[in-house]
Amino acid sequence: MKALVYRRYGGPDVLELADVPDPRPGDREVLVRVRAASVNAADRVLLRGKPVLVRLGMGLSRPRHPILGFDVAGRVEAVGGQVMQLRVGDEVFGASKFGAFAEFVCVNEDTVVPRPTNVSFVEAAATPTAGYTALQGLHRGRIRAGQGVLIDGASGGVGTFAIQIARAYGADVTAVCSTRNVEIVSALGVSRVIDYRHEDFTRDGQQYDLILATNAYRPLSAYRRVLKPGGTYVMTGGGGVQILQAALLGALVSMTSRRRMGNLMAVARKPDLLVLKELLETGRIKPVIDRTVALSEVPAAIRYLEEEHARGKVVVSVQPDADVV
Ligand SMILES: NC(=O)c1ccc[n+]([C@@H]2O[C@H](COP(=O)([O-])OP(=O)(O)OC[C@H]3O[C@@H](n4cnc5c(N)ncnc54)[C@H](OP(=O)(O)O)[C@@H]3O)[C@@H](O)[C@H]2O)c1
């Protein structure tokens, strides 16, 4: 099969389109013919092997898994001996451990679910990682109707899903993004958009029950200032300082005050994928697609994501017509 391979850590230029053997499903895996995949921030981290700590798990001198890509939508072509819930011919979407930037990928049956038939493979592939990260972040903050939710970094992959999921729960959503994304974010039904280039939400006197910082660019103390007593701050991504602050100071704040603050490490789980499936089916979430690229264009797409200004998701169309419902 054709796959996008990297044999050493580095920038997007180390990725090359190559012919490699088709993968074979393990006992609990299904072999999926990939119609579409999507690009996540994790792909760029694993590609570069930076921060170097990631190499402890991924291979010290060179990557142990030479094909990147987590999110996938496609058709089941073969099933492992112990697969109970899926059959050859099923159309699915979900999250693989690695390997989705290829024509075929093996995925554990616990991290893949039937594709909603009202969305295209492109939209389905856009959803898993960003969607379950948003969902788990909001669940951590006990999302419920009427809650005041602030989403910082609202216009990227995680943010655009977080807005829509919070709205589906009946929350009152304030979104923070840059000037050029105000329109896109407004269209998702938020109560208020704050353009961080012109306004500082940490100084306007408003407080929130739940803050989801998809990309935290501010000190923890600034988020704490706008978090109501009894509220929760969840950070999914951000700079190294912010990650450390959320882990260490966040634990301290959580122990010594009525506010909970900390990081989220999201995990692909079937129940969450089924929630996303239902939200897609009922039209309560609709993936925001920044652009769709071919497999050979993934290096450029990763370079684009490294700028940290994507508008929704970048999707990889691996087979023709992946955008047709
Ligand atoms: N913890 C986990 O398990 C987990 C899972 C998935 C993702 N993540 C992390 O979550 C983060 C977000 O992922 P993503 O897929 O949403 O990334 P993305 O699609 O690349 O989105 C980046 C977003 O950051 C915003 N941004 C850039 N500078 C900003 C600033 N100064 N203030 C506020 N927002 C700013 C951009 O909005 P503008 O263009 O409008 O500035 C853009 O919408 C990444 O760091 C990723 O590594 C973590």
Model description:
With 325 residues, the protein is of the alpha/beta class. It contains 10 helices and 15 strands. Strands 3, 4, 5, 6, 7, 14 and 15 form a 7-stranded mixed beta sheet that branches. Strands 10-9-8-11-12-13 form a 6-stranded parallel beta sheet. A two-stranded antiparallel ribbon has the order 1-2. Helix 6 links the parallel strand 9 and strand 10. Helix 4 packs across helix 5. The protein starts with a strand and ends in an 8-residue tail after the last strand. The model has no long low-confidence stretch (mean pLDDT 97). Bound molecules: NADP nicotinamide-adenine-dinucleotide phosphate.
- The backbone outline, from C-alpha atoms, is globular
Distance between the termini: 25 Å
Low-pLDDT residue intervals, each spanning 5 or more residues: none
Quote the average pLDDT: 97
Hetero ligands? NADP nicotinamide-adenine-dinucleotide phosphate
Strand content: 25-35%
Radius of gyration: 19 Å
How many β-strand stretches? 15
The helicity comes to 25-40%
Q: State the secondary-structure class.
A: alpha/beta
Note the quaternary state here: single chain
Order of helices and strands: EEEHHEEEEHHEHEHEEHEHEHEHE
Query: What's the number of helices?
Result: 10
Largest sheet: 7 strands, mixed
Keywords:
binds NADP nicotinamide-adenine-dinucleotide phosphate, 325 residues, 15 strands, six-stranded parallel beta sheet, seven-stranded mixed beta sheet, globular, alpha/beta
